Amino acid sequence: MTIPDSIDTDELTTKRQTIADTGRDMLDQGLTKGTGGNVSGRVGDEYAVISPSGMAYEEIGGADVPLVDFEAETLDGEFEPSAETPMHTMVYRQRDDVGGIVHNHSPYASTFASLGEPIGPSHYLIAFAGDQVPVAPYETYGTPELGKIAADTLGDEYNACLLENHGVLAVGDDIGSAFETALMVEYCARIHYQALSIGEPNLLPDDEIERLTESFAGYGQQH
Ligand SMILES: [Zn+2]
């Protein structure tokens, strides 16, 4: 296994460490438990680093994070990449604008995923994901079919989707913004759930969502 010459080794080292740190952030923020979920970051035009399979987030160091190509083949690293690597690489192939991906099974968002229902625009922060968080129809975890249906559901316009009976896929310009989007999805899912529990949520109109989406597009640079 060798690291391709086109890869900047400083960038690689930094992103490997960010993957390790973001895994712990997912635990700290209650987005995942145990070894569930996975995080990846684009490296150059054709490669990605992704959390290793089945390893406790507390124990993952930067050096443990595998480097893969967009065919989901491991190029460098001692450990197996996440079982969901085909889903991550499918999204990178389809979306040039995506630099980071977070997948988790956060409880409120996964509740909507199990209902097969999108998270509606009842809170303005939904605009981090789009005009809703749509649902990708069920496919078995780790399969190319799941990757394809998830990438198709994201299309060009969504930064997050639910995976039916499974969890959440969130994307962003970089690993940090994908993590931010995953947090917003779980927050909006919780508010939507609570609003539905005691009444009929007010839904934001499309033109307001558009305004918010434009406003949030520059959010990553400002904060
Ligand atoms: Zn999963």
TrEMBL record:
Top-rank lineage group of the source organism: Archaea
Coiled coil: none
SUPFAM superfamilies: AraD/HMP-PK domain-like (SSF53639)
Pfam families: Aldolase_II
Residues covered by the Class II aldolase/adducin N-terminal domain: 17-193
SMART domains: Aldolase_II
A GO molecular-function descriptor: lyase activity
Protein's name according to its UniProt entry: Class II aldolase/adducin family protein
Species in which this protein is naturally found: Halohasta litorea
